[in-house]
Amino acid sequence: MNFKHIGKYLIAVAIIIIYMLCIIKLGSNKYDIKNVFPFYNIDSGWTVTENGESREIESLFKASIGLVNKHDSVTITTTIPDISEIVSPCISFKTILSTADVYLDGELIYSYGHNTEDKGLMVNKSYHYVPLSSSDSGKTISIVITGTENSAFSSFSNVYVGNISDVYNKYIQVHKIPFIIGFFLCIFALVLLVLSTYLISSSHKDHSIIFSSIISFLLGAYILGYNDVIILISDRLRLGTVLEYITLLYMPAAIIGFIITDNIGFNTVVTRFFLAVNVILPTIFVILHYTNICHICNFVSIFHLFAMIEGFASLCQFILIIIRKKKDKKKQINIENRSLIHSYSGDVLAIGLMIFIATATYEILIFNYQKYLSPTGDRFSVSVLTIGAIIFVMSLFLNFFFHNIDHYNSKALFSKLENIAYTDELTSLANRALSEKVLENLEKTNANYAIISIDLDQLKLINDNYGHTCGDRYISNFARIIDEVFINSTISARIGGDEFLIALKDADEWECSSLLSKFETALIKESEASDEFTYKASYGFAIHKSKDKNIGSHEVYMLADKRMYDMKQEHHLNYDKKGEIENA
Amino acid sequence: MLNKKNYLSIAVAAFLLLTILFAVSYSLSYNPLGITCYLDSPWTVNYNDKTYTDMNFKNINDLTANGFIKKDVISLTTNLEDVNVDFPCLFFTSKYSAFIVSLTNLKDGTSFDIYSYDYDRYKDSDFVGCDYHLINLPEDYENYELTITIYVNSDTEALPISMPTLSTYHNQINSYINDHIYALCIGIFAVVFGISFLFISLMFIGISKNSKIEILTGLFCLDIGIWLLSYYGLLDFFYESRNTTFMSYITMFLILPITYLIIDTVHPAKNKLFFSAVSFINIFIPIELVMLHLNRTVYFNESRGIFFITALITFLILTNYLVNDIKTIHKTRTFKSASNRLQLYGLFCFAWCGIFEIATVSLHIFSEDINLIIKNITLPTGIAIYIGTVIFNYIIFSTEGLARVQQYNKLKEMAYVDVLTKLPNRAVSDYLMKRYGNSTSNYCIISIDINGLKSVNDTYGHTEGDRLIKDFANCLSENFEDVGVCTRMGGDEFLIYIDTIKEVDLKKRLINLEESYSSLDEDNEKGIRHSFAYGYAFKNNLENPSPHTVYMVADQLMYDMKRKQHEQR
Predict the structure, then answer these.
(1) CB distance A183–B188 less than 8 Å?
(2) A193: which chain B residues are within 8 Å (Cβ-Cβ)?
(3) In terms of domains, do A367 and A478 share one?
(4) Residue of A17, A359, B128, B148 with fewest CB within 10 Å of its CB?
(5) Given A158, A173, A188, which residue is the final one in a domain?
(6) A340 falls in which pLDDT band (50, 70, 90)?
(7) Residue range B139-194, pLDDT digits in tens
(8) Tell me, what's the pLDDT at B261?
(9) Tens of pLDDT, residues A115-162
(10) What is the CATH number of the domain that holds A468?
């Protein structure tokens, strides 16, 4: 890692920090809509009655009422502050999985949820706006909240007294960031889905994008549902309540689906099994919920347990894969020093996903801790999951960007590499790989072509007696001659130590023979001029005509090779006759 | 190209798309509960000190022939029906006028103001924007007379306020959101997308070749997102602001320069004079208009016409480029230009939607109701299309880039890996030879030559020869892979480069290699002998060593061994 890289990383980190700060700043209270009328967030002065016992509490926030189960009731009582200045005053609070009754000076003025409970359905999460009159200042107000499920809640929401407009705006302001991010994620999912139809049908065949969009949508819907956005701006209360559960339950399946299709390295039997489990179980839960056998909120703990286990397991696997990749990379000899070619994009996505899973796991832990163990109970607090969601989507963006860069940078090195890959280093002729490509092409197009196979004589003797350097010179000179003589060939390639292949499109026997005799002449000339070697080679050729559709290029080559071999046998007999090698 | 699996995937994607669309529109719908009372009559109107009674709200416009002018004062009064709802609330929208809402007690005639909008700005002759208003009424409102006093701040043809409605607070606010939910979604999406894109482009500013256009795109998305939200009055849903109209105009004006910069980056103009003229129009006119507004000379809503003409010119230039583009599409088929061209098409769609919207609103082609629908749909759709093309552009890049990287890796393998044995090839060996020139460690080079390869090739054919080489390569890897790099130089020659090794260990490995390789004799039916000759040298054992000399020494030792082996046979 040199300084240039460190600099770039620092800039990236700095910009990410600025980005996060902007988000936090935008979500802060500083730019909130100001209250027009007096507004009270009543936190103190409450009396809590639980199981017949009353106690005064200092702060509603830290009420420590414990876990409220089915049919348990909690009552909170206080006096209404001065609301004479307020137009359309109301008292407002939120309940989850409970019914609510409000008594003003002992008289019931508001009731919610009893009908639903009687029908056996899950009572919705709801915000209650209880209208008051300006003359109600100083009266006693009691709010009775009765749980309708086990582990319904363990804390109170804020209780606001004020103008209805101010109260509503307050709720919206508090949920500003989840509102924006939730909507963004949902629309983003839609856009990705639209684009995925093109991508799949084109040659790219990238199925992971469907799962990216599903994850994005589930995240967005979860954030909107969990943060009460749906129940604030629409009247679909049932959906708004159930949405957070359903989306949560299906999220692991979407993540696993994404991992499988994205080729991070996870496509194992175990993973597919988990995918099946993560699709079947939630579906069962949903069916149980809608048939009213068991409400979906009861499955949350099971789900959390599952999710935690899968979360940890996948994090471990991620780390293992990264370690393995690092080990492999160490073994690799990195000849290209331009590390920009290194494909960051796969890592980025994996890291983004890892961070997201980590934040989700953390969120689950915190949620359970708060609900069951802490004195404040299950209050809404900074949602780590929201940040995790943003990070995941950002990693999708970054993924795109890195691919963009990879694309440009690879182009230059690409062509250089093509040369190396397809050229024989010693002779600068084509190599075996390229020759196979060319032959394949000739076969595909069923062209007329000729193949000449040339084998150098006595290379081994030269190598053994005079060393490899001499041998290399021998080969290079031969290659030069071949290049000069067969200058118009489709390809002249060195396919082995002393083997050469030449392909000539549209050549006939006459042309091959004449070229080969030119070759012989050139060899003799070279031998005379050289004081080192005598250049001798064996060769053979074969012709392929278009009408021979069923004869492949390989067969043609084999025929040429056999003829070359026949010549070689002749030469051997000649050498044996002569008994010794001519050299300088 | 399209096989069964792909059809299935597309079907799944389409199904998901429809499901999500349905789910989103269902979950965000709102049905008003209770009564919504439209206050259309009877109104008593006091216009410039003339009183008209029993008017229908729609007919108030007919009071003047040429519309209302600045400094007019219109006072509307009506009685309120008791609709028996919780949280009674009045709702209407206003355009470029200040107003005060007051209630007059029917019994004793006392009146008090319950709501005032920008009256202070009107008094200062400042700019007053457009907004929607939710006015909470006291519980006993049916005992009062409602008076809305409008202070016209800008010449206008129609009455500056829309017909008020009375309903419960939740109905009003949720209906308003519901009507504009499409714009809200797209606006939020554009803003978040724009910010994220902008930040990420800044991160890549030195690295990516497309930095300039990426940053411009991010800015543009952010700009039109804010414009959309402020244009529909949705911004004050989230933030306290008295300047939403101002912001909507600024962002609208900013569209021109940014659009022009994008066009210019993608398709630089060839004609210099033309270029200067258009830059002047696109950059200076918006700035000038803003200056005029801030100076209180000519307000935005009055200078709108000039802006639209400028926009039209830019639109025509854009169209011109695109038409040329389509004509020459076969000639300039480079990838880079294709992808950025896509953005221009997206921009074109967006511009077209904008023009359409302006035309319908200004020219009053359709009726009021259809106008409203068009207004709510056109612009957000245009923006959605544009952002869609941006994302599409980058997705294409990413998938092409991925394919290219995979191709690259394959090529890399071809270039540096020997096909038969999968060991590093001569190119790698040459590279290592160079690299070891700078090495300070006591590296060791081993030269190995397989015996009898040529005779095997000649006697049994190349297949057997290949097998011989492969078997040797395997034995070699087993014994040396963990300490050094084994390369195949070609034919039957192998080189091993080892960074550090004790000579004792090296000798042991060579003996193991010999044993494992010659043990292959037993299984060989053809009676082929497996043997090799080797020589090695350590850097520190030589004076003035270079990797080449070390190699030469090792090679020489290898030949010596080969000769000895020949003699022994």
Answers:
(1) yes
(2) 13, 16-17, 20
(3) no
(4) A17
(5) A173
(6) very low
(7) 888 888 899 999 988 888 888 888 899 999 998 999 898 888 889 999 999 998 99
(8) 84
(9) 888 888 888 888 999 999 888 888 999 999 998 888 888 888 889 999
(10) 3.30.70.270
**What distance in Å separates residue A551's CA from the closest CA in chain B?**
22
Q: Of A123, A150, A173, which one is at a domain's C-terminal end?
A: A173
Decide if A149 contacts A70 (C-beta within 8 A): yes
| Cβ–Cβ below 8 Å for B454 and A460 | yes
The two structure tokens encoding residue B157: 């043809």
Residue A378 within any structural domain of the chain = yes
For residues B215-226, give the mean pLDDT: 92
Rounded to the nearest integer, the mean pLDDT of chain A is: 81
A230–chain B Cβ distance below 8 A for any pair: yes
**Whether residue B415 has pLDDT greater than 80:** no
A422 located within any domain: no
Q: What is the CATH number of the domain that holds A194?
A: 1.20.1070
- Domains held by chain A: number: 3
Alpha helix positions (H), A121-228 = 164-174, 176-201, 208-226
Greater confidence (B199 vs A130) lies with A130
Is A194 part of any domain?
A: yes
Cβ of A406 and B405 within 8 Å?
A: yes
Which of B398, B488, B558 is best to mutate for the A interface (most A CBs within 10 A)? B398
Q: From B404, which residue of chain A is nearest by alpha-carbon distance?
A: A407
pLDDT at residue number B270: 67
Q: How far is B175 from chain A (nearest CA, A)?
A: 9
Mean pLDDT lowest among A323-327, B85-89, B139-143: A323-327
Asked whether residue A354 falls in the same domain as residue A494, the answer is no
Residue of A nearest to B424 (CA): A333
Å between B445 CA and nearest CA of chain A: 16
My answer on whether A166 and A185 are in the same domain is no
Q: B181-203 and B211-231 are packed helices; what angle lies between their axes, rounded to 10 degrees?
A: 160
**Is the residue at A111 inside a domain?**
yes
Q: How many CA atoms lie within 13 A of B92 on its CB side?
A: 24
ipTM of the complex: 0.78
pLDDT at B279: 78
Q: Would you state the structure tokens that stand for residue B184, as one six-digit string?
A: 């809200």
The boundaries of the domain holding residue A288 are 175-332+339-411
Instruction: Considering only the beta carbons, identify the residue of A133, A180, A464 that sits closest to B188.
Output: A180
What is the pLDDT of chain B when averaged over all its residues?
83
Looking at CA atoms only, how far is residue A60 from chain B in angstroms?
A: 27
Q: What is the pLDDT, as a whole number, of residue A436?
A: 86
Tell which residue, B155, B176, B157, has the closest CA to residue B167. B176
Sheet of A98-104: strand order equals: A53-57, A46-50, A73-79, A140-147, A98-104, A107-112
Q: What is the mean pLDDT of residues A503-526?
A: 90
Which residues of chain B lie closer than 8 angstroms to A173, CB-CB?
238
Q: How far apart are CA B276 and CA B279, in angstroms?
A: 5
Region at B337 (left for phi over 0; alpha for psi -120 to 50; beta for the rest): alpha
Looking at this protein, which amino acid is placed at residue B481? E
**Is the Cβ–Cβ distance between A371 and A151 less than 8 Å?**
yes
List the single residue in A87, A129, A190 with the smallest CB-CB distance to B136.
Answer: A87
| Domains annotated on chain B, with CATH | 37-173 (2.60.120), 180-408 (1.20.1070), 426-568 (3.30.70.270)
For residue A411, give Cα distances in angstroms to A121, A414, B87, B116: 62, 5, 66, 64
Which of A168, A188, A196 lies closest to B189 in CB terms? A188
* Chain-chain contact of B28 with A230 (C-beta, under 8 angstroms): yes
